Structures are given as structure tokens and as C-alpha cells.
């Protein structure tokens, strides 16, 4: 039966994925970009800590989606596919389009700084807007060396929020 022979490759875009995680991520993102009809060019950089994918083009906003939901989903897919059949060390995978991640990180840092200021000014916990795991991790990391506040996450996805709480005496409890 020919149809069943074609089923496995078709589920994989009709082609096998490369074994190298960097090549695998590039292939997956290129296929998604093409399938979505986005006129974009995929560039991949790798360093000691991460594999970072940039999609450049005029209409890449479709890849970002409302409030970054599409690019977050694409990043999750890329992470899962990068190491799908491999064990051992894994690097972070970050997918960006049109500089969205950099702009969003700057906005998150501004919100985090404001939350710290408010928490200290009013002496109470301050909740940030709901955000995905990647963004919460960005804020936790950004604030981790601040001894006058501590952070934790509350709630359930998709409404999980990061909370900034003042610490008595500037020491973490």
C-alpha cells in the first residue's frame, strides 16, 4: 500500500530532518515560513549557550502573531524538534522575527523595573501581566540579583504571572 509508505515522511513535511540540532532547527523554521506563505529569509547562529534563529523579511509580522503567541509557539516547536531524537546536552533555542524578541525583552525589563519601584514604594507584592514561560524566565533572570525584592510565578497557563515582592531588610527570605 503506497499511501501508508508515504504517511511517515508526509507527517515530517515529506522529508527527513537532519540530525544536527542547528540544521534541524533551520529546516523546521524554513518549512514553517514557507508553509505560512511568509516571504522571509532564515538565519541561524549558534554559540555555547543557545541556537538563535532570525527570520528577516517584509511580512514576518505573521510569524509574530498577536502578543507574540505565534512566535512563542514556533519557538516551542523548534525547541522540541531540535532534540527530538537525541539525549545529552541541550542548548536553548530562541526564534526571533523582525527584532521582536529584543523589543519585547526591553519592554519586559521596563515593566520589571516599574514593578520593583512599585513594590518598594508601596511595600507590597506587585503582579506583572500574564506571560509565557520564556518571558517569565527573562524577568526572573533580570531581577535575580536584586536583593531588595524576590520573584515567583503564580497562577495557571495561560494566565500565569510573575510577582515581585519586597524583601524585609533587603535580604532574600
Mind explaining what this structure looks like?
The chain is α+β, with helices and mostly antiparallel strands. It folds into two domains: 2-98, GMP Synthetase, Chain A, domain 3, CATH 3.30.300; 103-170, R3H-like domain (Ribosomal Protein S8, Chain: A, domain 1, 2-Layer Sandwich). Helix content is 45%, strand content 20%. It has six helices and six strands; from the N terminus they run H-H-E-E-H-H-E-H-E-H-E-E. The chain has helices at residues 2-11, 21-35, 61-64, 69-82, 100-122, 133-143, and strands at 40-46, 50-57, 92-97, 126-127, 149-154, 161-166. The strands form two sheets. A three-stranded mixed beta sheet has the order 1-2-3, sandwiched between helices. Strands 4-6-5 form a three-stranded antiparallel beta sheet, covered by helices on one side. Strand 5 (149-154) and strand 6 form a beta hairpin. Helix 2 packs antiparallel against helix 4 and helix 5 crosses helix 6 (133-143). The longest helix is centred in the middle third of the chain and has 23 residues, at 100-122. The protein is elongated, with a radius of gyration of 20 Å. The model is unreliable at 1-12 (pLDDT under 50).
In short:
This protein has 2 domains: 2-98, K homology (KH) domain (GMP Synthetase, Chain A, domain 3, 2-Layer Sandwich); 103-170, 2-Layer Sandwich (Ribosomal Protein S8, Chain: A, domain 1).
